[in-house]
Amino acid sequence: MATGQISRRRCLVAADLAGENAEVLRESEGEEASAAAEEIFHRFLSCAASVDVVDEKDY
Predict the structure, then answer these.
(1) What is the distance between the alpha carbons of residues 59 and 40, in angstroms, rounded to a whole number?
(2) Structural domains in the chain (count)
(3) What whole-number distance in Å separates Cα of residue 50 and Cα of residue 30?
(4) 36 CB-near residues (< 8 Å, 6+ apart)
(5) Residue 56 in domain
(6) 8-21 pLDDT, tens per residue?
(7) Is residue 32 in a domain?
(8) How confident is the model over 30-53, as pLDDT tens digits?
(9) Which of 7, 17, 28, 31 could be 56's S-S partner, Cβ–Cβ 3.0 to 4.6 Å?
(10) What's the 3-state SS for 3-57?
(11) Which residues does 18 contact at the CB level (< 8 Å), separation at least 6?
(12) Could you tell me the superkingdom of the organism this chain comes from (predicted)?
């Protein structure tokens, strides 16, 4: 797998985990942590969108 490439499955798993982390922080820490968690989640999505997504079957 070339540098900057991530499989669709790994990208989806990472997005799911980032979303779950944001939800846990939101529930446990209140509004300030919720805003921080949302920012981290959206930054992750921006990063994920900027890499080449490939099918694992290609490797």
Answers:
(1) 30
(2) 1
(3) 30
(4) 25
(5) no
(6) 777 777 777 777 77
(7) yes
(8) 666 667 777 777 777 776 666 665
(9) 7
(10) CCEEEHHHHHHHHHHHHHHHHHHHHHHCHHHHHHHHHHHHHHHHHHHHCEEECHH
(11) 40, 41, 44, 45
(12) Eukaryota
Who's near 11: CB < 8 A, 6+ residues apart?
48, 51, 53
Q: Provide the phi-psi class of 4: left if phi over 0, else alpha when psi is between -120 and 50, else beta.
A: left
In a domain, 57, yes or no: no
Cβ atoms of 43 and 19 closer than 8 Å: no
Q: 26 CB contacts (<8 Å, ≥6 apart)?
A: 33, 34, 37, 38
Is the pTM of the predicted complex or chain greater than 0.70?
Answer: no
Q: Tokens 């949302």 appear where?
A: 38
Token pair of 59, please?
């490797």
| Residue 59 is assigned to a structural domain of this protein | no
